[in-house]
Structures are given as structure tokens and as C-alpha cells.
Specification:
The chain is α+β, with helices and mostly antiparallel strands. 42% of the residues lie in helices and 20% in strands.
Length: 307
């Protein structure tokens, strides 16, 4: 038997999670339990799942439940809509009906009353037990896209122990795109102190939450400047010692619109090379100001602390 490649191993783990989801659509599905079945951390699993399937975990679960319900509606006229809702994991009929109408553009009752032939594709894509066949080749292709992207765009990738950093920082909680507010506060503080004129100045963003898991309007981040020594808080800017330890460090020269792709590809590289993310938050180290770059690009290290 041909040994599995790293990509196949990663996909096999995601497929195992998918199988667990499909086998338990009638139960309450918890991210931690699904990730555990795939032998991934919550943070890492959600990112990989989205890259491989092109869906979030919650979006995937919702779609599977509604597709399963549609199949029941077409084939089982003797089962009530309330019973079908319960069979696919909904405890509330109204929330099921709202979700179904949003997905299919009509209520469950309207769907049932229309000709089943109109929705025959749903039945054709299901196996005898109502499960959708996993498209292994498509998932491999999705993963390979990220691998190819990082090979073409990363200037270099190293795994090394980083030193501890003394940081001045402003905490931000909100949308990722609004991190500039925190940086404005940080720069306003640092400018009169002459900190922006420091040779080899480094700015850093630390991500305390994953946008793949947390509410995108409530992401925790820290806008940081690397200091020679800790400073006293002024009520807005605080300081701390940050010890990242062993990290995957990927250097890029990219536009702001490419950061998401860079991070996703970085996490794929981590998985493909057998590393496990540690409990320390991932972060970016900036080596330039994109406003001074001829193409408006950042020279940045994306750093994932690993165990």
C-alpha cells in the first residue's frame, strides 16, 4: 500500500471530522468535540476545515442539516415537519423554518408541496443513509492551492526559537480592519518619546482570537511596538514581556488584501510539516511601512508559536 502523504493525512483527519458531523446531525455539535475527533486544536482545526471545505464549521453543519431535512421532506410525507426538524438537530421549529427558508427560498411546507422532481439533485447527491459522499479529490485540490500559494509567495520559512520581547501595546477588540485605531493611539504615544526613530524599529500585531471562530466584530488583538525595556502604563498604552518560544516564521512581501491568504497558507504549511500550534497567540512582525513601499506592500513575518 502506498504510504499517505502529509496532504492525505490532513484531509483524512478533516474527513473524519466530517463523518462525525454527519453521524451526529441530530445532536448538539460542539466545536471542541469535533476538533478532538480530528486530533486538532480548536484554533488550528477551524482554519484547516475552512481551507479544505471552503466553509466554516458552523456553515457546514447548517448546510448539512438543511440538506438532510430537504431529503426527508421529499421522501417521507408521513413524517411531520416538527419531527424532521428534531431529526436534524433543531430544538425549535421556528428557527428551523427560518433557516430553511433562508437556504432554499421557501418554507419547509412549500418545499414539500412542490414536485420532488424539481429537487431531485438533492436525492442524487445523498447516499442511502442520507449522507453526502466526501469529495476527497476536491479537498486535496483546495489544500494544494494553499501549499502552492505559500511556495510562490513566501520569501522564506524557518522554524526557530524567538527571543522574548518587551512590548508597548494597545489592546483592541472589534473588527480586524479597525486595528488601525489602536496603532494610531500607539504611534501618538510613541512619537514624542522618539521611539519611532529607533534603528530596526519593529511593530507587531498579536491575535488573541481567531476570526474563523470568534465573532468578526469582536476579535481581540494587540497593536505593539518592540521596546528596549518595559514602561509604565499611561492608561492607554501598557507594557508586557512576550515570550513566543519556538515559532514557524514565514517572511512575506504582500499587500493588505493578501494577509488572509498568507495566514491560511501558513497554517497549512504547519500541518503539512507535522507541527502543532502551541497555546501562545500567533503574531505578525512588521519590518516596514507599506506607505513607503513602491507597491504598497508590507514586509512582514507571520509567526505561529508551535509546541
Amino acid at each position: 500500500m502506498k504510504p499517505k502523504t502529509p496532504s492525505n493525512i490532513t484531509i483524512a483527519k478533516i474527513v473524519k471530522a466530517i463523518q462525525f458531523i454527519e453521524d451526529n446531525l441530530n445532536q448538539k455539535l460542539i466545536l471542541e468535540e469535533i476538533a478532538k475527533r480530528a486530533n486538532f486544536s480548536n484554533f488550528h482545526f477551524h482554519r484547516l476545515f475552512s481551507i479544505v471545505t471552503k466553509e466554516t464549521v458552523n456553515g457546514f453543519i447548517t448546510r448539512k442539516r438543511l440538506e438532510r431535512a430537504a431529503g426527508f421532506l421529499i421522501r417521507n410525507n408521513d413524517i411531520s415537519i416538527t419531527e424532521i426538524a428534531e431529526m436534524v438537530g433543531y430544538t425549535n421549529l421556528s428557527s428551523f423554518s427560518r433557516g430553511f427558508k433562508k437556504f432554499y427560498g421557501m418554507s419547509p411546507l412549500q418545499f414539500r408541496e412542490l414536485s420532488p422532481q424539481k429537487f431531485s439533485k438533492i436525492c442524487k447527491t445523498e447516499s442511502k443513509n442520507g449522507q453526502i459522499k466526501v469529495n476527497f479529490e476536491e479537498y486535496i485540490c483546495n489544500l494544494q492551492e494553499s501549499i502552492n500559494w505559500i511556495q510562490m509567495n513566501a520569501l522564506n520559512i524557518t522554524v526557530k526559537k524567538l527571543p522574548e520581547f518587551s512590548l508597548g501595546y494597545v489592546h483592541h477588540k472589534g473588527k480586524i480592519d479597525d486595528i488601525g485605531i489602536a496603532y494610531h493611539q500607539l504611534i501618538k504615544w510613541a512619537t514624542p518619546l522618539g521611539l519611532l526613530n529607533t534603528p530596526n524599529l519593529q511593530m507587531m500585531t498579536i491575535y488573541h482570537d481567531s476570526p474563523k471562530i470568534s465573532d468578526p466584530n469582536n476579535i481581540g488583538m494587540s497593536a505593539c511596538i518592540v521596546l528596549k525595556e518595559l514602561i509604565k502604563s499611561n492608561g492607554i498604552v501598557n507594557s508586557k514581556t512576550f515570550i513566543p518560544g519556538k515559532c514557524i516564521v514565514s517572511r512575506f512581501e504582500i499587500k493588505p488584501s493578501e494577509f488572509q491568504q498568507a495566514w491560511e497558507s501558513n497554517f497549512v504549511w504547519m500541518s503539512e510539516n507535522g507541527y502543532q500550534k502551541s497555546e501562545i497567540d500567533p503574531f505578525e512582525i512588521f519590518h516596514n511601512n507599506a506607505e513607503n513601499h513602491p507597491e504598497g506592500k508590507f514586509i512582514v513575518d507571520l509567526c505561529i508559536p508551535v509546541a
